[in-house]
């Protein structure tokens, strides 16, 4: 391809920012990133935002290359035939290639009262509302966390460590993604923190009211604050744009992350779904997918055939308050094994796992900005301002 290549990245999460920085390092490629917030959200720290131990945001000036154009807006439609993205603010963006990295959010609970009365920690606004609700609730009031995945476990532990009376409703088993041996230290630590853990088929929520949670066996739990962490969904932008998706709404791609409908559209992050090669929604996958999506586009620009993207997993880390955690190791294909770390060592590994992707993005931003410093004529639409933390960072 000759001349300048315009790439639009829709979504400024881990995958989108990783892809934007990789592409911005290439001469002759102009990158525009569309994100509905002016700051980068550390989604894996949102449970810390809810309890006040971290603010979970970083200025784009720290993680996004200086030659990436930042547009603070929301994409409403992708016109693949015209290669244009429509924005909520009324404008449009033309592209030669598009990276679809819209991420994911909380799923519709599908339980009476849950959407109205339960809080979420799956996005920045939800976590901030939860923090306000907790601040307005007596410390002795009962709190119920629904969902036994990483978000539910981490949120329950974080709150209990502050002295809150927490019940964790699992719906089936605590930490279903963990190896049986890795599950034991999680259960032990939650018990030490005073968390009541409800497991089994009867521990399923059937209704939520303003001050109770009703279970399938008829029990009613008092709950001044209810937090729903079970399930995720992706935005319907792809489906609304006439692009094929899987049953969960993720953009269907081949092994190179290219849309099965259009070679000019490449996906990254939680909203991507390789045909016959499912992978877990996670930060760990997103950074790899972002790099892979950029590599696919760069190969096409160079007239080369893109290579299949291979994801390699190391395991999963779960924080259990500020001072303990569990690191569950896995095989490279994401199947868990019996190896795990717990206690303070597990907490240190978890903290490293949180900081490492942010360091990767910051490094990518510096490399992209180095190209900009040589003068390539690219400029930001809205220069992001450096973000200063309003709460102390984690000290683990």
TrEMBL record:
User: Gene3D superfamilies per the record?
Assistant: 3.50.50.100
User: Which cofactors?
Assistant: FAD
Q: Which SUPFAM superfamilies match?
A: FAD/NAD(P)-binding domain (SSF51905)
Q: Does the keyword Flavoprotein apply?
A: yes
Pfam families named in the record: Pyr_redox_2 (PF07992)
Q: Where is the FAD/NAD(P)-binding domain?
A: 6-288
Keyword Ribosomal protein among record annotations: no
| Ranges for region Disordered | 366-396
Query: What InterPro entries does its record include?
Result: FAD/NAD-bd_sf, FAD/NAD-binding_dom, NADH-Q_oxidoreductase
* Keywords tagged on the record: FAD, Flavoprotein, Oxidoreductase
Task: State the similarity comment.
Answer: Belongs to the NADH dehydrogenase family.
**PANTHER family per the UniProt record, alphabetical:** 64 KDA MITOCHONDRIAL NADH DEHYDROGENASE (EUROFUNG), APOPTOSIS-INDUCING FACTOR 1
Put simply, this protein is called FAD-dependent oxidoreductase
């Amino acid at each position: 391809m000759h001349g300048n290549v315009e790439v639009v990245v829709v979504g400024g999460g881990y995958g989108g920012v990783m892809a934007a920085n990789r592409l911005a390092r290439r001469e002759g490629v102009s990158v525009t990133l569309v994100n509905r917030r002016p700051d980068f959200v550390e989604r894996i720290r949102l449970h810390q935002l809810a309890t006040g131990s971290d603010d979970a945001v970083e200025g784009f000036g720290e993680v996004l290359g200086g030659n990436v154009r930042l547009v603070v807006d929301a994409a409403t439609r992708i016109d693949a035939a015209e290669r244009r993205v429509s924005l909520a603010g009324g404008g449009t963006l033309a592209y030669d290639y598009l990276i679809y990295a819209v991420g994911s959010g909380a799923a519709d609970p599908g339980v009476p009262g849950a959407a109205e009365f339960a809080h979420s920690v799956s996005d920045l606004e939800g976590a901030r509302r939860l923090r306000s609700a907790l601040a307005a609730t007596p410390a002795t009031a009962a709190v119920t966390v629904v969902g036994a995945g990483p978000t539910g476990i981490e949120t329950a532990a974080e709150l209990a460590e502050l002295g809150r009376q927490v019940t964790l409703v699992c719906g089936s088993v605590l930490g279903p993604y963990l190896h049986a041996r890795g599950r034991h230290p999680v259960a032990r630590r939650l018990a030490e923190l005073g968390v009541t853990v409800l497991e089994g088929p009867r521990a399923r929520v059937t209704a939520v009211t303003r001050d109770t949670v009703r279970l399938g066996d008829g029990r009613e739990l008092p709950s001044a604050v209810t937090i729903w962490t079970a399930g995720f969904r992706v935005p319907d932008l792809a489906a609304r744009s006439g692009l094929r998706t899987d049953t969960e709404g993720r953009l269907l791609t081949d092994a190179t992350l290219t849309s099965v409908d259009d070679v000019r559209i490449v996906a990254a992050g939680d909203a991507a779904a390789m045909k016959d090669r499912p992978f877990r929604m996670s930060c760990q996958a997103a950074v790899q997918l972002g790099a892979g999506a950029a590599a696919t586009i760069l190969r096409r620009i160079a007239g080369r055939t893109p290579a299949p993207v291979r994801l390699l997993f190391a395991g999963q880390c779960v924080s259990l308050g500020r001072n303990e955690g569990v690191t569950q190791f896995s095989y490279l294909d994401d199947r868990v094994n019996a190896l795990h770390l717990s206690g303070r060592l597990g907490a240190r590994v978890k903290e490293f796992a949180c900081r490492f992707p942010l360091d990767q993005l910051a490094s990518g931003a510096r490399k992209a900005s180095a190209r900009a410093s040589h003068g390539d004529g690219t400029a930001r639409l809205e220069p992001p301002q450096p973000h200063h933390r309003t709460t102390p960072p984690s000290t683990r």
